[in-house]
Amino acid sequence: MTPTLVASPNMSNSNSSTNSFSSSESPIIDASIPVQEIPVQEILVQEIPVLIVGAGPVGLFEAVLLTKMGIRVRVIERENQISPMSRALGTQARSLEILSMVEEGFVDKFVSQGRAMNSAHMFYGSKLMCHLPFSQDKDENSRFYLPLFMEQERLSKVLEKDLGEMGVQVEYGWELADTEVVGEGSEETYVKTVIRQTAAPNDGQERELRVVRSEYLIAADGGRSTVRHKANIKFPGRTLLYKTIMFDGTIDTDLDLGDATAITGMNRKSLLIFRIRDNHYRIVVEDGSYDPDADLDQINRDLTVEEFEGLAHASLHPGTKFKVVKNLWLSCYRINERRAESYIHKGRIFLAGDAAHVHSPAGGQGMNTGLQDAHNLAWKLGLVMNKIAPARLLLSYEEERVPMADRAIALSSSLILRARDQGVIRHYIKRLFLIVSPLLVYFRSTVFPRSANMLDIRYPTNYINVPHKVQEQPMEEAHQVGARAPDGPLHSPVGNNKVHVHQLTVGVGRFHILVFAGNSFADPSCQEREKELAKHLEEHLSQWRTRWHFTTLEGGRTDNQLFKGHIIAAGTPGESRGNGLLDQRAQGDGRLFWDTSALVHASYGVSVHVKDGAIVVIRPDSHIGYRVQGLDKSAWEDVTEYFQTVLA
């Protein structure tokens, strides 16, 4: 019997984390035949709710998040393994925050594999001028104020292991050959994708072809994205007309190298050295202008270790020891600054990571922007596929993430422009900077601008970032809807422990309601207020959870509560005149936490002296979605109205 395309309108979104297809075997088809000429009926069709193309950090993170939300995924990767060659080396503070919110202890898997970037050694030629910190922002606004030095390869392996423990294996050696969205308008729509083996399994055999039918396809297949090409999405931007040499390996040198070393060269060019581990270094050096008509592949074939050593020596004082001991990777590349014209194709195909935006690695923005793309898309797609939210929620993915790509491109471009050779005058300005650099620490100067940690990101007012219909938004943008929800220290009366806000707001695809009570619990009448607050919270959590719920996987356990509530009061337990009713509640069901320094109230723009308090709704990606002043019945009804607007 000839297999045909399965006509079922719905694909299973069960909470099973293992992949299952409508057919487990597929005939071998001659892969040399053009895809468009192969009759679909001659290939067994396999079904999966979400097909992810690309198993780099972005694709793997997307797969982990969706699987934890009960969505079955299939991940294909054209290479045969995770690449040991990693251009990305650093994970910024904001990315560490979103990793920490997946589930309790999740971020520890990554922190244990890397090390914090504290400072960089700044050189002029071979002379050490100073140490500059990566950040001066050691405060309570985030637990992760320093970037984490960890290669992309290690990050990917942690994600792959976590995905494998949930029963999903990456299918290496498979590439996308063609894809299209089938059906439009009132017709059922889905994505039909042809995938093929990148190499024949044995001599004399043909590469196998398969057809995959999915509800959605996520393209995480890099800067040369096949998906983007097949969807005919334009990728405008520019190619910078100069070359960069990248080396990975071991060296013998008498330079005093730190975890990161930035050298302003004697030849006016920059030399950057990063210690990956032990005596294993990543070295990046300028190599002059780039002829746009040149063959980059031929340049790489002709590139030698001796040529690289010569470029490095030209930046250093004569007589400096610098010798390659072992070459693991040597490559010449050109920098592209491009962003996809659209992130969404016909409502079914989504671009993420390098498939959507590429730029210089300066500032460590690329992989981090991609991880945040994955996080933003996953919770929205998960809620839509679990029928918790309408499909229009997905439109906000492009609306929110496109400005973040533009931001990353602008930042990396400014940093690369600052570093490159721009003539004698610019060279002497940089040299003067290094001369006075020992004094810069006192002026809180850092290696990168503060925005590089990505903690100041903010999304615009839109369908899910909703200002109150009557009340004015706070004056400061950091307190308004769309802003990243700040972290901060809290005191838990249960166990007398110190916790942080972001340790409460964990869980994939989950909304958190922060109830700010100010200093009202120090009031003589607070017992009645405590009972009233407990009643409102219990009633509304029950109401919301009854109407909207789905099951997520967290730490090996299931949880079907889409909403978690947390009460934050200013002051200390000793000042409370309450009866401890809120202290006894389970975490997420309205347990009371104390803001002993009032820093958390201030970081959310809530006055401790306003006794009627405030309610702040935190989106699943820890951005402020809604806020209302007051804790009375009408305030709670406003929050209910917000959820009725956003959810299905």
- Write out the CATH superfamily name of the largest domain: FAD/NAD(P)-binding domain
Helical coverage, percent range: 25-40%
Characterize the overall form: globular
Largest sheet, strands/sense/barrel: 8 strands, mixed
Distance between the termini: 42 Å
How many beta-strand elements? Answer: 28
Overall CATH class of the largest domain: Alpha Beta
- Measured on Cα atoms, how large is the radius of gyration? 27 Å
Q: Estimate the strand proportion.
A: 25-35%
Q: For the residues shown, what is the average pLDDT?
A: 85
Based on the coordinates given, report the CATH architecture of the largest domain: 3-Layer(bba) Sandwich
Pick out the low-confidence regions: 1-29
Structural classification: alpha+beta
Number of helices: 14
CATH topology of the largest domain: FAD/NAD(P)-binding domain
What is the total domain count? 3
Tell me about this structure.
With 648 residues, the chain is α+β, with helices and mostly antiparallel strands. It folds into three domains: 35-83 and 155-235 and 340-406, FAD/NAD(P)-binding domain; 238-335 and 431-450, 2-Layer Sandwich (D-Amino Acid Oxidase, Chain A, domain 2), CATH 3.30.9.10; 477-646, Glutaredoxin. It is built from 14 helices and 28 strands. Strands 1, 2, 8, 9, 10, 11, 17 and 18 form an eight-stranded mixed β-sheet that branches. An eight-stranded mixed β-sheet has the order 6-5-13-14-15-12-16-19, sandwiched between helices. A five-stranded mixed β-sheet has the order 26-25-22-27-28. Strand 20 (489-492) and strand 21 form a beta hairpin. The longest helix is centred in the middle third of the chain and has 25 residues, at 395-419. It is globular. The two termini are 42 Å apart. Mean pLDDT is 85; it is low at 1-29. Its cofactor is FAD. This is FAD-binding domain-containing protein. Keywords: FAD, Flavoprotein, Oxidoreductase. GO terms for molecular function: FAD binding; oxidoreductase activity, acting on paired donors, with incorporation or reduction of molecular oxygen, NAD(P)H as one donor, and incorporation of one atom of oxygen.
